Amino acid sequence: MKSLRVFFITIFILINASCYYNSAERNKIKFKDNASDVQNALLKMEVLINKLPASEFNTNYEIKNGVIEINGGPREGDSTSYYTKQGLSVFETTERKQFISLAKYLERNYITAGYLNYKSTVCFFTYRDDPDNTFDDLREIAFLKDVSGDVIKSECKILDRKDQLLLLAPVDAKIYNNFTLVDDEKSK
After folding, report:
1. C-alpha–C-alpha distance, residues 121 and 143, integer Å
2. Beta carbons within 10 angstroms of residue 23's beta carbon
3. 3-class secondary structure, 57
């Protein structure tokens, strides 16, 4: 009987531990490379994103399955390569190489996309993205200098700061650390 109880307790613990909550590392800024090097790369990428052709929603780039997509292509019947070629055509050869190099470097450091918010001029970078993300798991990085606007304050909450970088989550997201819901008042 005692071994049966231990068995059920063990199963219960394993099931609870395997339930998905946003991982603690998603709530802190932590890169593979030196944070100041990544910050410098993000500054350079922000300048390049501002040169991309405007789109109807967010001017952006994203890496999907190792391929860089610009401005969200494809759309009905359009090819990703068309939008990406169109986007890259705004760059001189050295800028194009720099853009691709920075995108790959940032991907290695858990940043898989960058975009200009359509409601403001703030550049956001997607941090630790995962195909299984839920609304509560969305994390973005922005520069401190850019996050003073009312739009940002009304849509985001700050989870972490490293030098001039802020880690943001949607204002209504439920934030978990070590399987415990973080009190919203403490995280504001």
Report:
1. 12
2. 14
3. coil
Measured CA to CA in angstroms, residue 89 lies from 92, 101, 104 at distances of 8, 16, 19
How does pLDDT run across 71-92, given as a tens digit for each residue? Answer: 875 555 555 666 677 788 889 9
Q: Helix 93-108 vs helix 35-49: angle between axes, to the nearest 10 degrees?
A: 140
The residue type found at 97 is K
Residue 66 φ then ψ, to 5°: 80, 5
CB 33, CB 109: distance < 8 Å:
yes
Partnered with residue 181 across adjacent β-strands are 176
Token pair of 9, please? Answer: 């307790």
- Please write the tens of the pLDDT for every residue from 30-42: 999 999 999 999 9
Bridge partners for 125 per DSSP:
114, 141
Q: Given the structure tokens 């802190």, which residue do they identify?
A: 28
Report if pTM > 0.70. Answer: yes
